[in-house]
Specification:
The structure is a homodimer of 116-residue chains.
Chain A (H helix, E strand, L loop, with lengths): L2 H8 L3 H9 L6 E2 L5 E2 L3 H14 L4 H7 L10 H35 L6
The structure holds a DNA duplex (30 and 30 nucleotides).
DNA sequence: GTAGGACCTGACACCAATGTGAGGGGCAAG
DNA sequence: CTTGCCCCTCACATTGGTGTCAGGTCCTAC
């Protein structure tokens, strides 16, 4: 499978597939002329990558996490810990925006008293 | 008051004060030699700008909003509408991250079934 | 007048994933 | 062999507030 076919099979842009390779998430074979050749398992792989992006992980986090996935069981605890750390980051992000929203509510309630 | 003094009075960096001017949030006088000269009301002004940043507004939004603040009353309704729009944006941001967190929870609960 | 600190402008760095374009090679069907 | 589409690499743009240089100028105290 060449890159365009994988792109349409997964809905991910060709550009992004090349980026994933650059980040080390995919390692396709190359044809003699240098074209990327992907096996059928790459579809699942790309879908997993997409799920991780949807889950709010950045490339850097995925670099940590992807090697653990599909490894034998002993790593499961470390993997879960890493994912929980990401979960905590998301919760912190939410809390931060909630604080911003409270600040904004305060400003709205003060309206009419500005004089600067 | 020169820029360094305003910076220490407000806790905002000199770099940021110059940026605020560039964005049109502040319009200090200039001395003959070109140095920025701020009046004492600038302290309040900078504090308001900081409050808006804390409230999660971006410079672009503040460009819309600042001219209304300190204007006579008739604009109050438009100003409030604008701030409520920003509030909605924050709520949307929160919802988006919450969805990411749910995706992550789903992934965590699936752990052990990965094979790619 | 000189030292040293405060100030000036302009510009690059950061973070992250993706879009986009240039310039060129590969491949299959007619 | 040509046409046309797919692929290749390299590289710049995007977003935004701030940090941080570099290379100069200004101001104040001595």
């Amino acid at each position: 499978m060449r890159i365009g076919e994988l792109a349409s099979a997964t809905g991910v842009s060709v550009r992004s597939l090349r980026y994933y390779e650059n980040q080390g998430f995919l390692s396709p074979e190359r044809s003699v002329s240098g074209q990327r050749i992907y096996g059928p398992e790459s579809v699942q792989r790309v879908e997993l990558i997409q799920r991780l992006f949807d889950a709010g992980l950045c490339s850097k986090a995925m670099t940590d996490i992807l090697p653990f996935i599909a490894d034998p069981r002993p790593r499961a605890a470390a993997l879960e810990a890493r994912l929980l750390k990401e979960r905590e980051r998301l919760s912190n992000d939410i809390a931060k925006i909630e604080r911003s929203r409270e600040s904004l509510d305060q400003l709205i309630s003060e309206m009419g008293r500005f004089s600067t």
